[in-house]
Write a structure and sequence with these properties.
By secondary structure, the protein is mainly alpha-helical. It is 58% helix and 5% strand. It is built from 8 helices and 4 strands; from the N terminus they run H-H-H-H-H-H-E-E-H-E-E-H. The strands form 2 sheets. Strands 1-2 form a two-stranded antiparallel sheet. Strands 3-4 form a two-stranded antiparallel sheet.
Length: 330
């Protein structure tokens, strides 16, 4: 076959592959091959799975190996067959071929022996990728929604560690553990960069563009005073009064400053609300930690008193004394 011809699109290749496939399955029939039903099913599954795995192979070398193995298996099944067409084979050849087939079935890997169309197999959907460590958890699993944790959800030693409220460049956060989660670092970085961009734009609008706009307004006023030219209608319009109702060049920079200031104000209000909620969580966690600490002290004291009581009873009864061994208790 020429190298530029794709085997899967070659008629001769397809006819040869389908003929070999059907011949192998025919040799696995109960009338042609003396095998148990479960072994015959396994052999058919091996043939079907191997052909399915090699249906996209285009390498001439690999195809030659596959066809050679297929025809050798076909000859082996024909020798082991008890049909009249193979009655000329000796009993030793039949027994040897049957033993080879049995060894093949015993050494076949599990992925070849199972049915390619298993009705009980779960449908293979799209592979679910693990979430990125920088991805934020769902709202129901975030810290502000699940804290404070109940005592049964502490895990580890069971000792509650009270979180600390800290400031990350004026943004509040709860320090729970180390190392800090990458998702929290990403969120803080994004918020800090966003606030810095807003401050830069507001500063540029107030300190740079507003100055240029004032100069433009002054230039328009000079043109009106000397030539009577309106800044709104162009150089061809001569007016007698200055158009106070018309907008000026400073309106747009001032509008940008107002919008960004409002955004920063909303962010500040939201930050204050977050700080109050986080502080409430810290206070409640501290109260629970204190209650749990007292409960642990009580349990330790009860256990200590129990051990002391047992020692006192042993000392009074003298069960540990060598002189009292084997004697009746007092």
């Amino acid at each position: 076959m020429p190298a530029f011809v794709v085997p899967a699109r070659s008629g001769a290749h397809r006819v040869a592959a389908i003929a070999l496939y059907r011949a192998l399955l025919t040799q696995c029939s109960p009338a042609a091959f003396p095998l148990a039903d479960d072994q015959r099913i396994v052999l058919r599954n091996i043939i079907r799975n191997k052909f399915r795995r090699n249906r996209h192979v285009h390498s001439t070398r690999l195809l030659k190996l596959s066809f050679t193995a297929g025809y050798e298996l076909l000859d082996m099944l024909a020798r082991a067959s008890s049909s009249p067409a193979t009655a000329t084979c000796s009993d030793d050849a039949k027994e040897s071929a049957t033993q080879l087939v049995a060894n093949l079935l015993a050494s076949a890997p599990p992925h070849l022996t199972r049915s390619p169309t298993d009705p009980n197999a779960q449908p293979r959907g799209p592979k679910r990728l693990d979430p990125s460590p920088e991805a934020c958890p769902p709202p129901s699993a975030r810290t502000l929604a699940i804290r404070p944790l109940p005592a049964t959800a502490l895990g580890g030693t069971g000792v509650r560690r009270v979180p600390r409220l800290v400031s990350a460049n004026t943004f509040p956060m709860l320090r729970l553990q180390k190392p800090q989660p990458r998702s929290l670092s990403r969120v803080l970085t994004d918020k800090i960069k966003q606030r810095q961009r807003r401050l830069d734009v507001r500063s540029e609008a107030a300190d740079y563009w507003s100055v240029l706009a004032q100069d433009e307004d002054e230039w328009d006023r000079l043109l009106w005073e000397r030539e009577g030219v309106s800044p709104a209608d162009g150089d061809d319009m001569i007016i007698d009064e200055w158009p106070e109702a018309e907008g000026s060049w400073t309106d747009e920079p001032q509008r940008v400053v107002r919008i960004i200031s409002a955004q920063l104000g909303v962010q500040r209000t939201r930050t204050e609300w977050t700080v109050k909620k986080m502080q409430n969580i810290v206070d409640r966690e501290a109260e629970l930690a204190k209650v749990e600490r007292e409960a642990r002290k009580v349990r330790r004291e009860v256990a200590r008193m129990g051990k002391k009581r047992m020692k006192d009873m042993e000392a009074i009864l003298g069960t540990d004394s060598p002189d009292r061994q084997g004697a009746k208790p007092l």
